[in-house]
Amino acid sequence: MKVFEQTESEVRSYCRSWPTVFSRAQGSRIYDESGRGYLDFFAGAGSLNYGHNHPQLKLKLLGYLVNDEIVHALDAYTVAKREFLETFRRVVLEPRGLDYKVQFTGPTGTNSVEAALKLARKYTGRETVVSFTNAFHGMTLGSLSVTGNSMKRGGAGVPLNHVFTMPYDNYLDGATPDFMLFERMLTDNGSGLDKPAAVIVETVQGEGGLNEASAGWLRSLADLCKRHEMLLIVDDVQMGCGRTGPFFSFEDAGIVPDIVCLSKSLSGYGLPMAVTLMRPDLDVWEPGEHNGTFRGFNPAFVTATAALAFWEGEGLREQTLAKGEAVAGALDALADEHDKAITGRRGRGLAQGLAFTDPPAAGRVCAEAFERGLLMETSGPDGEVAKLLPPLTITDRELAEGLDIVRESVAAALEA
Questions:
Q1: Which of 114, 168, 169 is nearest to 137 (CA)?
Q2: How far from 216 is each of 44, 203, 247, 283, 359, CA to CA, in Å?
Q3: Helix 396-415 and helix 360-371: axis angle, to 10°?
Q4: Which of 169, 199, 253, 372 has CB atoms 3.0–4.6 Å from 218's, for a disulfide?
Q5: Domains of the chain, with CATH numbers?
Q6: pLDDT grade, residue 174 (50/70/90)?
Q7: Residue 176: pLDDT over 80
Q8: Cα three-residue angle 62-67-72, rounded to 5 degrees
Q9: What is the 3-state secondary structure (H, E, C) of 9-62?
Q10: Could you tell me which residues are beta bridge partners of residue 347?
């Protein structure tokens, strides 16, 4: 591993927790160059909802490349883009009664968020965007400005302005804050709050500690945005594409955001791809006003189309909900068993975790899990949550195996 230490930037992070060199992967397992297998409860930070090298997606991708079809096309029309748009409309939008235009942004989640913020400001003519405590929306300047983590914000090196931060659901010692103060500030000329262009929110804060907003809180937020003509942006980069059960994480709350950010598992194969969805009347861009060299990565369109077909036919929503209940039961039992060290379970669907009273304990759990052949990470402002993010396609046997390792790792970490 000397070449990595000598040549690669100090900014590298996950490799420090997993000191091995990986070489291949299939399904829910990843293997290092010595042949040792690891069960993957990380799933590419949520980019591999359908596991590693899914065979149906892989065949589509290989066939596309073998036939010398278009790989790079910027925003030119291509067969692969047409097939993705037609499939996305048929499988995702139409069954949910959603009328969105699709903007292909640069290839990552932060590109989708940047486009959403710029569009909201352009459409409304206002500058301020409201975000929430412990939010994470990306690492470029616009998305970083609406991110809560102080360490990540500090890396910007410049002021992060034009943002107003409100408490997220359950932020105030477990209390659910209503929006009375927010609304008062919106209507009071002396509050110092300029009328916002938009509010951006995650329904479950993945990097912020698996904090889950209640359906009622989300509905109240959506109603407030409508009353005060603020656009509601839902960042579904990590929790979308089925991670919490439904394709969109906001479906169970019964809300319809004005703008939606999608990336990570949208391509289904770990290939870079991101889109910003918007109400048709919000599509006020001038041609080329927001663009990116890699917004037309056609291999990702191919695997995304195949992933949507797989999603449509495999009953993944119900399977994910059932597996999520199994995870919740196991983590609740652990929280009860170690009630002095664990403050409780967080998250929903197949994005759940355990919050520890002593933040370093979560890191020790992940280290113990790695030694036992399981990949997982921490989240939260102090790294206090041991986070489980397995592929949606994980088998029941693999899930049980992984949960057994988590149980052993928690016991070992708390004894240390």
A1: 114
A2: 31, 11, 20, 29, 30
A3: 120
A4: 253
A5: 2-54+315-415 (3.90.1150.10), 59-313 (3.40.640.10)
A6: low
A7: no
A8: 80
A9: CCCCCHHHHCCCCEEEEEECEEEECCCCEEEECCHHHHCCCCCECCHHHHHHHH
A10: 352
The mean pLDDT value for 296-300 works out to: 96
Q: What single DSSP character describes residue 251?
A: G
Tens digits of per-residue pLDDT, 252-282? 999 999 999 999 999 999 999 999 999 999 9
CA distance 3 to 350: 36
Whole-prediction pTM value? 0.97
Q: Hey, which residues does 30 pair with through a beta bridge? A: 25, 38
User: Average pLDDT over the chain, rounded to whole?
Assistant: 96
In the block, tokens 């235009």 appear at 101
Indicate if the pLDDT at residue 180 is higher than 90: no
**Identity of the residue numbered 141:** L
Strand partners for 37: 31
**Least confident window among 8-17, 47-56, 120-129, 240-249:** 8-17
CA–CA distance, 330 with 195 (Å, rounded to integer): 45
Task: Write the CB contacts of 329 (distance below 8 Å, at least 6 apart in sequence).
Answer: none
- DSSP secondary structure of 331-352: HHHHHHHTTTTEEEEEEETTEE
Residue matched to tokens 């990552």: 108
Please give the DSSP secondary-structure letter assigned to residue 285.
P
